[in-house]
Amino acid sequence: MIKVYGVPGWGSVISELMLTLADIPYQFINVDGFDRPGPQRDLLQNLNPLCQVPTLELEDGTVMTESAAIALMVLDRCPHLAPPVGSPERLQFQRLLIWFVANVYPTFTYADYPERWAPDAPEQLKQNCIEYRKSLYLWLDNHLQATPYALGKTLTLIDVYLVVIRTWGPRQEWFSAHTPNITAIADAVCQRPELHKVLKANEII
Ligand SMILES: N[C@@H](CCC(=O)N[C@@H](CS)C(=O)NCC(=O)O)C(=O)O
Fold first, then answer.
1. Per-residue pLDDT tens over the stretch 4-14
2. With bands split at pLDDT 50, 70 and 90, how would you rate the model's confidence at 158?
3. Where are the beta strands (DSSP E) in 90-137?
4. What is the b/e burial string over 77-106, where b = at least 16 CB atoms within 10 angstroms of the residue's CB?
5. pLDDT band at residue 118 under the 50/70/90 scheme
6. Is 107 in the pocket of ligand 1 (CB under 6 A)?
């Protein structure tokens, strides 16, 4: 069975939700505290030198990291979780998938541990990243025109990112006030009964 190394509510929930949608069984291994020296960090770093979650160990022991790569792996097994090849929505799916990990995720890398990158001005780095992230979300919200999900009537793996990031900084109240489309899509994902157990375990609902 696939092992998902993670922390409840952190990036590992993105993989947990994707695997759940694809009906792929997995075992969750809690590595809470991995971002400080200790046994959890040693365990994770042994698998993933970047020491980040999500980190997966596949059925055959292969290590898999990077949420977008994990999404593509899930799609290989369960293609209906993305729009069909050749459709305009497919291109949007591909664009947004890479957009998230190329633009949004690094703002967490730098803002969550600012002293690592700017020991002389950590607070400034943190604030700049948070403001930049907000500008990304405002662009995204304008770009999302479909309902009830990001790409229309069918839930895709992009929707998983939306329901998760809405719980992270700048937090749900900010999203409610500034990003009505992200909010509506995240609310729609929260209604999916097959995701309730994982959403609850990660305190998203
Ligand atoms: N590019 C990675 C980013 C993963 C990531 O940054 N995860 C955060 C937790 S949500 C993390 O592990 N941070 C610890 C660190 O960067 O040291 C992905 O898309 O999976």
1. 999 999 999 99
2. very high
3. none
4. ebeebbbeeeeebeebbeebbebbbeebbe
5. very high
6. no
What's the Cα-to-Cα distance from 103 to each of 30, 46, 136, 173, rounded to whole Å?
Answer: 27, 27, 8, 22
Distance from the alpha carbon of residue 105 to the mean position of ligand 1, in angstroms: 7
Overall fold of domain 83-198: Glutathione S-transferase Yfyf (Class Pi); Chain A, domain 2 (1.20.1050)
CATH number for the region 2-80 comes to 3.40.30.10
- Residue 45 Cβ inside 6 Å of ligand 1? The answer reads no
Tens-place pLDDT, residues 92-115: 999 999 999 999 999 999 999 999
- Of residues 147, 148, 139, 205, the one with CA closest to residue 178: 139
